[in-house]
């Protein structure tokens, strides 16, 4: 069984570790700073290094990069130089600097890279893509994605102001942290032509990053999308509405179902997802896909190029911060 190095053992790194174990993978090396606020018990039996080169000296076949956003690229580049395949958490960085270097290494060593946009593995959004591909609502014209979620409620065991999501030095802020719609809208609608945004701090959460953003995307196919992101909303809401020339559809993360209206039929139809689906189901499917990529059974559903394009959109929106 090939060895997998996990770099960063916060909540996301722990999730990937648990999912890999549930999928039968047992050969790990950990690279960590020991700054996690989570209990240590589940990590006690695993070999651990605090120096990256020492960790890579264990010759892992793949590296999962799940440390804070601003620290992704130093780990990813060193891993690629060592010939390791990569699972690279989103966003892939907080800057476009050195991405050319990473891309060149990936090409040189013929590495597999999967970027961690797990919503592409959501069965509801997969159903949305299938409906759009078969023209169920005609050509998309207008799209609205809304994701509001109260930051202090994410990790109740820690001071949210110390989390990477809340710190500019670690690549935080609502646009980078909640950038999933920027990826799945590209996946659903194609390439983005223009980006504009209204960005700022509108809460009393004592952050040094933006906590709200309204982003407008114009797609090469003609559709216009607006995306609302915030760290403020209680209770949380994550929804997607698409208006097409011949109908409309909506998806709600709360129940995962897809509802669409076909004008020619004049009625609403629904695709429900399995009652066994839970949030971790996306991450589990994503990790199984990564293992399949490592085994040569699949090509990455979310490539490094996808990660670069998603980051470029996010950074273009952040430039409108005021």
How would you describe what is shown here?
- With 322 residues, the chain is an alpha/beta fold.
- The protein folds into 2 domains: 4-111, Rossmann fold; 119-278 and 300-318, Dihydrodipicolinate Reductase, domain 2 (2-Layer Sandwich).
- The protein is 29% helix and 25% strand.
- The chain contains 9 helices and 14 strands.
- The protein has helices at residues 11-22, 52-56, 72-81, 99-109, 123-133, 174-177, 180-189, 279-294, 304-318; strands spanning 4-7, 28-31, 48-49, 62-65, 85-89, 113-116, 140-148, 192-200, 212-219, 224-230, 237-244, 247-252, 258-262, 267-271.
- It has an 8-stranded mixed beta sheet with strand order 8-9-10-7-11-12-13-14.
- Strand 13 and strand 14 (267-271) form a beta hairpin.
- Helix 1 (11-22) packs across helix 8 and helix 3 runs parallel beside helix 4 (99-109).
- The longest helix has 16 residues, at 279-294.
- The chain is globular and about 60 Å long.
Descriptive keywords:
9 helices; globular; eight-stranded mixed sheet; Rossmann fold; 29% helix; six-stranded parallel sheet; Dihydrodipicolinate Reductase, domain 2; 25% strand; alpha/beta; 322 residues
Which helices and strands appear, and what pairs or packs with what?
Layout: E1 4-7, H1 11-22, E2 28-31, E3 48-49, H2 52-56, E4 62-65, H3 72-81, E5 85-89, H4 99-109, E6 113-116, H5 123-133, E7 140-148, H6 174-177, H7 180-189, E8 192-200, E9 212-219, E10 224-230, E11 237-244, E12 247-252, E13 258-262, E14 267-271, H8 279-294, H9 304-318
Parallel strand pairs: 1-2, 1-4, 2-3, 4-5, 5-6, 7-10
Antiparallel strand pairs: 7-11, 8-9, 9-10, 11-12, 12-13, 13-14
Helix pairs in contact: 1-8, 3-4
